[in-house]
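Provenance and format

Records in this collection were gathered into a single text stream. Each protein contributes a sequence line and a token line. The two records reproduced below are adjacent in the stream.
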Amino acid sequence: MPITIPQGLPAREILEEENIFIMDENRAQNQDIRPLNILILNLMPQKEKTEAHLLRLLGNTPLQVNITFLKTETHQSKNTSPLHLEQFYTTFPEIKHRKFDGMIITGAPVELLDFRQVDYWDELVEMMEWTKTNVTSTLHICWGAQAALYHHFGVDKYELPDKCFGVFNHTVKDWSEKLLRGFDDQYVAPHSRHTNVPMKDLIAHPDIKLLSASEEAGAFIMSANSGKQIMITGHLEYEAATLAEEYHRDRAKGLAIHMPRHYFPKDNPEKQPSNKWRSHAHLLFSNWLNYYVYQETPFKWD
């Protein structure tokens, strides 16, 4: 939340140079406050786990948030009970008339398919187009980020020779961006994907800001259109054991998968990994809700 300071205070210039969020008394006195309406398009197979991952982060701010869960009509989930979906999820035709302050589009296990081969691609495109006028800011995660980069900006993904799987070190590339306020110079984050986006294409694109990247994992956090679209290629929302569960599951299925890098203590998969990214996960979601949703969304939508 912002610091409210008297108008003309000399320290204001110092704080602004350090990218500290400040607000003068006039703006503070005229702010209207209401609950934020956040839409979550959950494309992950184990939807209940993803719900917990995201709600844990969205619920740890002073802001009141109303959540609406969205499912696709053109693809039926095989890993979540129909009763759960019927009880807690809605479809796009049922909400497309509404305005939302923020939206999250999750990853999906379809990254090795060409975008247009995904059975709900046309439906997703319609939703992404709709966000331009009906959502203040949309946060895209993993495959959802790649889908947004492809649809909105024409940046395609490519298949990696080896899966990007593990917990990698990242650096901040743009300290002026509000989304990264409070971040350490270096921090870690989990990744789990078979594809990547070309760094050179992102840097060259006039509408995309590369905010953070990893030497091993590539581009991580990107922003476009003053934060209306935010793309994150990894999974800060993951719990400590999420990569371990994925690794042991695939091993049990006899699939070829290497041990997640920089993850298990002493590279021993029998040891319990620790969560070294939790604070930055909470910080990123808090910054998104505050600076890109709460501070930007209209009190009353037209």
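Adjacent record:
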Amino acid sequence: MSAVRTVLGDVRPDLLGVCDAHDHLFFRSPRLPGQELGRASAARAELAAFVAHGGGSVVQWTPYGLGRRAADLPALSRETGALVVAATGLHQAVHYDDGTLAGLRGRLAEVFVAELTEGIGTSGVRAGLIKVAGGFHALDAHARWTMRAAAEAHHATGAPIAVHLELGTGALDVVDLLCGELGVAPPRVILGHLNRSPDVVVHLQAAAAGCYLGFDGPSRAHHGTDWRMPGAVRALADAGYADRLLLGGDTTTAGARSVNGGPGMPYLLRRVRPRLAVELGEEGVDRVLTHNPARAFAVDWP
């Protein structure tokens, strides 16, 4: 039977409730010095704020080596009442030192499978998805290496593959590689950050291929595309692809958290939800926030 693999164990998909399908409770990268998401108390407050606005679950896309703090996630889930899904996977090469990447050569898929089936480190927390990343309008050698490993891990476990698209670009290259060459069923692929490149023609092609389309990371000052996102979502819904849409907050810096005066996780429900309701209606937005993630993250685990 299909289940979503959360940090508290496998649950029925319908228990996710209102889902932030792409966010971060913990995150640390050398590209964001001084903006680490590393304090458990701040993560707890942010998660509680999301729950207070009607949230039920959060999918953390933080992959291997970027400060996931998997051992802290079960307590946060229990204390706030929100279900949390953790990730395995690997980000772009720029987020890692050479030694870390060298240590994963020849065993990357093995690491992914182990974290999905046995647990992340000694935490005992099993990941529920695989997160990888493309490049700007292209797939470099690192992206192809990680996606091949992700596909191998997917074929061994059934886990969905979530893809960071750099500034929303390269979606069709990802589809060609993962779903074409590597044989991953399109509904098992989630294409993230499409709001950052609101090309409706590309969105429609990716949706027609059968992938899930992630619109995540609203309210970013350096991504001046928020005003185009509702129209892009409406175009997809009008074309019959409302069942392919996912929404997420993608909070990656301490300054962006609501507890620090930023929009944070609650912004997804406080501002994005009512704006999209103008385009899709309340029932349509409810389906995007509840039914779609329940399907996207559900797996017939071996």
